[in-house]
Write a structure and sequence with these properties.
With 309 residues, this protein is mainly β. The chain has three domains: 3-97 and 202-207, Thrombin, subunit H (Beta Barrel), CATH 2.40.10; 104-198, Trypsin-like serine proteases (Thrombin, subunit H); 220-302, Pdz3 Domain (Roll). The chain is 11% helix and 41% strand. It has helices at residues 3-12, 29-32, 201-207, 239-242, 262-271; strands at 15-21, 35-42, 49-52, 61-65, 71-79, 85-90, 112-116, 125-137, 141-150, 160-162, 168-181, 184-193, 220-223, 230-234, 250-254, 257-258, 278-285, 288-295. A six-stranded antiparallel beta barrel has the order 1-2-3-6-5-4. A hairpin with a 5-residue loop joins strand 10 and strand 11. The longest helix has 10 residues, at 3-12. The N and C termini lie far apart (40 Å).
Length: 309
């Protein structure tokens, strides 16, 4: 065991495995699959566990396991679509302690960190913060500042990002290939800063989601990898589908203003109001430009409730 892992090993007991089974007809099943597995971190003495939300989104069954091999049923408490965090709790006693909460803001580019999964033989991967920058996801998701680390951990979903004092600074969300660091392409992990969860944790425990009005959701997957905003997926019977949008359409404007970048697209949409607001899009299809009015919605209304209490 490395020196840093030895020093931080008490925090490891708070890291758990999270496995979920999602119904075949769930909205997220086609994109994320029906069998999902990852990790979570126990953050409160009442057993509350923070994980990355896509693992348990729309789950009908959840199992939570400690590092000593004990596995018990779990229940989803809620999912915050804005940050990407999910909260779960075991329904039976589960061995292990809680972790001290740190802050992603305390980490700088170049900071030493440890990435840890729930695997019993995982002593933690010593890594470095290589970037802190905006991240826009094609599923209508945006972080003003995500944390990127290298080398990449091979089991990142819900993994714990620890500082050198063993405090939780973030939860693992993605592995990103061909990530540009000073003109060198490398593979990195992306972490969601834990401080995005703490101000809304009581709301999620009480209501299953944050208390503020939900953002307008269009039900689209939008790709910007070729310097254009192309719709690559449309959820059936959701706002974008109802407005006649199709894969291959290019979004070139929002409310009469041009857009050419994914984060800018989402910000312009969300600026127009909360869920239910009509979103005027300028769309290019087969060389022809037209206007589409999308009646946005609350994303949670299209989700199966699963095991959420």
């Amino acid at each position: 065991m490395s020196l840093i892992a030895t020093r931080l090993s008490p925090a490891f007991d708070a890291i758990v495995s999270v496995k979920a089974r999602i119904p075949d007809d769930a909205m997220s099943a086609g994109l994320l699959g029906t069998e999902r597995a990852g990790h979570g971190v126990r953050i409160r003495d009442d057993g509350l566990i923070a994980t990355i939300g896509y693992i348990v989104n729309e789950a009908e069954t959840i199992w939570i396991g400690s590092r000593d091999g004990t596995t018990v049923p779990g229940v989803a408490i809620g999912y915050d679509f804005e940050s990407g965090f999910g909260l779960v709790r075991p329904t039976l006693p589960l061995p292990g302690g809680t972790i001290e909460i740190g802050s992603g803001a305390s980490l700088a580019v170049g900071s030493d960190v440890l990435v840890v999964s729930s695997d019993a033989d995982d002593e933690g991967l010593a890594a470095e913060v290589v970037a802190k920058r905006e991240f826009a996801g094609r599923w209508e998701y945006l972080l003003d500042e995500a944390i990127f680390t290298a080398p990449a951990h091979e089991s990142w979903s819900g993994a714990a990002l620890l500082d050198t004092r063993g405090r939780l600074c973030g939860i693992g969300s993605l592995v990103v290939q061909n990530f540009d660091i000073d003109d060198v392409l490398t593979t990195v992990n992306m972490f969601v800063p834990i401080e995005l969860l703490m101000p809304i944790i009581d709301d999620i425990c009480e209501r299953g989601q944050r208390r503020t009005p939900p953002r307008p959701w269009l039900g689209l997957l939008v790709d910007d990898s070729q310097d254009r905003l192309m719709i690559v997926g449309v959820y059936r019977n959701c706002p974008g589908d109802n407005a006649g949008l199709k894969p291959g359409d290019l979004i070139v404007g929002v409310n009469g203003e041009p857009v050419d970048e994914l984060g800018n697209l989402f910000r312009r949409i969300w600026r127009l109001g909360s869920a239910g607001t009509e979103i005027p899009l300028t769309v290019l299809r087969d060389g022809e430009q037209f206007e589409a009015i999308v009646e946005s919605a609350d994303r949670t209304l299209f989700q199966r409730k699963g095991t959420m209490q």
